[in-house]
Amino acid sequence: MWNPKSQSFLIISLLCMSALSTWTAASNGGGKPLLAAVTKDASTSLYTAPLKDGRPLVLDLSSPAISLPCDAKKGKGTVTTTLSANATDGKNPLFPVSFPAVATCATPPPAGAAVVGVAGLAPSGRSSFPAQVARTQKVANKMALCLPSDGKTTSGDSVGVAIFGGGPLFFIPPDRGDFTAMLAGTARLHGFHGSPGYFVSATGITVEQKQAVGGPLAVGLSSTIPYTALRPDVYGPLVKAWDQAASGPSFPWMQRVAAVAPFERCYNSTKLAVSLSRLGYGVPQIDVALEGGASFLVVGGNSMVQVDADTACLGFVRSGKGGQAPAAIIGGFQLENRLLVIDEDKKQLGFTTFLSAIGLSCSNFNFTHAA
Ligand SMILES: *[C@@H]1O[C@H](CO)[C@@H](O)[C@H](O)[C@H]1NC(C)=O
Ligand SMILES: *[C@@H]1O[C@H](CO)[C@@H](O)[C@H](O)[C@H]1NC(C)=O
Ligand SMILES: *[C@@H]1O[C@H](CO)[C@@H](O)[C@H](O)[C@H]1NC(C)=O
């Protein structure tokens, strides 16, 4: 006999079971953030993480999607793929997690020897890597990113760390505390004429506490350009203020030498060496004053690029773009060795101090599995 009650009971229990199994699948990571080791590719200066079958994807702060090379047979469009990382408690990797992700297909595949695709980190409702981690792992749409240097100019074995889904994040030794809660500053994230990526507003840029450029200035973040690019009307006054400070009595060790492209201000680093400290070479401090009062400080360790054994150059370049372009795009070299905490839900950028200043680098994460 057909019994509507037992039928609906059956349906309800089936629904419950499927809800339970989706819940189990979703919390496969136990609602835990995911960890990735970040490497700087020496030839391309791109930062990658081994998220696709252990093979690297480029981390791109300006791309809002995951992209993989097109399958010649299936043509263009979106594909479902499986990505993997380790769950983390913020101190160590805990256990491996694989999860489905939607990727768009891109031709040609990105440059770089072993790179198999792009993990777009830019803000997006659903398609970015952090948004897909947030959805599948039931964690916050928040990432902590510590880009490593190439190991040539700064210490460290050039493996940085990224945690997707929020903090905490501890460096070795862990008793120094959660660095996502030790921010030197925060600023509100803005859009910029619909461009993908993260932008903040600056009230000005100073060199040795003297105003070089007035605001408001739109400042973007990029992990795919190697050095900070300044619009010509910003680059000119900044370099002028830099020259003034550099030729002043506080920096007797700064001796100009021939420029090495793409840089215009280069110095004899044999002479600079006397000023070397945890902050890098003793050179004028550049300070990007952000809306809300925080300062993004650029000390020698983030400003001076060692181009050869006895030459170090100011690592800022003039961008080709004028007019509607952002005033500045902070590039990889100036983002390295500090922890960036990008909270998409709160629309907030947070950053720590330059880690070398406190005897750390982005390579101080413990990638040994927790016992
Ligand atoms: C997980 O962590 C271990 C130890 O660091 C590492 O060997 C492994 O490649 C990681 N797995 C993934 C998927 O990243
Ligand atoms: C840099 O300084 C060192 C030490 O004073 C000197 O020997 C060398 O010739 C200088 N190099 C240049 C290119 O000026
Ligand atoms: C790294 O983590 C492992 C596992 O918890 C631990 O045994 C080891 O002592 C840690 N290494 C350092 C240098 O703290």
UniProtKB/TrEMBL annotation:
Pfam families in the record: TAXi_C, TAXi_N
Signal sequence range: 1-26
GO terms, biological process: proteolysis
Domain Xylanase inhibitor N-terminal as annotated: residue spans: 79-166
Keyword annotations of the record: Signal
Presence of keyword ATP-binding: no
Molecular function as annotated in GO: aspartic-type endopeptidase activity
Domain Xylanase inhibitor C-terminal: 198-352
UniProt entry tagged with the keyword Membrane: no
InterPro entries according to UniProt: Aspartic_peptidase_A1, Peptidase_aspartic_dom_sf, TAXi_C, TAXi_N
Gene3D superfamilies for the chain: Acid Proteases
PANTHER family per UniProt: ASPARTYL PROTEASE-RELATED, PEPTIDASE A1 DOMAIN-CONTAINING PROTEIN
Stated family: Belongs to the peptidase A1 family.
Name of the protein this chain belongs to: Peptidase A1 domain-containing protein
